[in-house]
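Help needed: design a sequence for this.
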């Protein structure tokens, strides 16, 4: 379903329902009907799909609650939640960790209020420090109990079905980098496993001083989401690994989500070619929106995406405090983590890859 069709559906005449709204926790056999709702709900994102429950619980051992509200047997709203409890990074309930978008996706105000109420009750029951929603827009702009802060932005831009139009839309300097990589004969291939992607990704995040996700996590993403999860790897003409990206396909959008490059990538404009190659493939597949994903303000990733001609769109994540007295600040820009980052960069890569999954599961 395209963005236009979803917008039309949102404003279509509603089917008259007379029964009460009721709150439920999704059971394994209900995943198909959950996903059927998510795929047609205008507020929903790829990160509302039921497959995230399996991925997060099996990859990280994290407890999840997938709430939904129904009326007359029809789902009216959903809210996936997960708990992170860490001595180092705090105790939180969020929608959803490891996902850039989240929060309530609902068709009615009643369903939305009931799901908010379920999250509030669960947060109190668990004794968390805070509750977090990761929406693309504020869900509670007039409620003083919900706070937000400026940290993340996303970059989303329409693409066409014509490669030349998409190339021309890239600013001149960035376009030159893409053409350089094309002349060097780089090649894009789709992998049926995550081996090369993990090698490129792990090398890249180690250079940044960031703990790596477990390889099992990426394999589960590919397994659970099937054709909607693609691993695209870039090599030289002789087959040398340059870069790789794991992307999600959702409605008429493509979302490059995890990626990285080897030391060779900078020399041959590998990352530039990787995103261009993905844009070409997504355009041919019928995608008309390229979601470059979340970045923190003031980072190299933020600048890189701006260089492609994308405009930053604020992500006003919302926080409701319970036992915490201040908003969370678990990100690499926090000065208190700088020593850790410098030390992490010095670790041998195999050691960092072994230790990283034990740390990153607590970050979300």
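Sure. Designed sequence:
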């Amino acid at each position: 379903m395209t963005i236009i069709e979803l917008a039309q559906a949102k404003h279509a005449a509603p089917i008259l329902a007379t029964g009460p709204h009721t709150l439920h926790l999704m059971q394994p056999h209900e995943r198909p009907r959950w996903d059927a709702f998510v795929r047609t709900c205008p507020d929903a994102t790829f990160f509302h799909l039921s497959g995230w429950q399996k991925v997060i619980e099996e990859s990280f051992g994290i407890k999840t609650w997938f709430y939904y509200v129904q009326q007359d047997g029809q789902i009216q709203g959903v809210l996936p939640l997960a708990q992170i409890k860490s001595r180092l990074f705090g105790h939180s309930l969020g929608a959803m960790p490891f996902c850039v978008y989240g929060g309530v996706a609902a068709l009615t105000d009643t369903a939305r209020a009931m799901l908010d109420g379920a999250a509030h009750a669960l947060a109190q029951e668990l004794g968390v420090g805070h509750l977090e929603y990761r929406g693309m827009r504020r869900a509670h702009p007039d409620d003083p109990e919900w706070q937000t802060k400026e940290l993340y932005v996303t970059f989303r831009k329409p693409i066409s079905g014509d490669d030349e139009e998409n190339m021309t839309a890239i600013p001149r300097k960035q376009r030159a980098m893409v053409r350089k990589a094309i002349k060097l004969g780089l090649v894009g291939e789709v992998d049926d496993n995550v081996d090369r992607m993990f090698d490129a990704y792990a090398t890249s995040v180690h250079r940044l001083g960031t703990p790596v996700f477990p390889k099992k996590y990426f394999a589960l993403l590919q397994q659970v989401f099937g054709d909607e999860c693609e691993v695209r790897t870039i090599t030289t003409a002789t087959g040398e690994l340059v870069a790789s990206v794991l992307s999600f396909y959702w409605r008429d959008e493509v979302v490059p989500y995890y990626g990285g490059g080897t030391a060779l990538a900078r020399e041959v404009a590998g990352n530039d070619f990787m995103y261009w190659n993905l844009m070409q493939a997504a355009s041919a597949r019928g995608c008309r929106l390229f979601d470059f994903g979340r970045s923190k303000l003031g980072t190299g990733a933020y600048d890189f995406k701006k260089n492609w001609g994308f405009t930053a769109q604020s992500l006003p994540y919302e926080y409701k405090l319970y036992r915490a007295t201040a908003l969370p600040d678990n990100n690499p820009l926090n000065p208190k983590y700088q020593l850790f980052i410098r030390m992490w960069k010095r670790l041998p890569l195999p050691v960092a890859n072994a230790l990283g999954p034990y740390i990153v599961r607590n970050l979300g």
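Residues 109-126 form the longest helix (18 residues).
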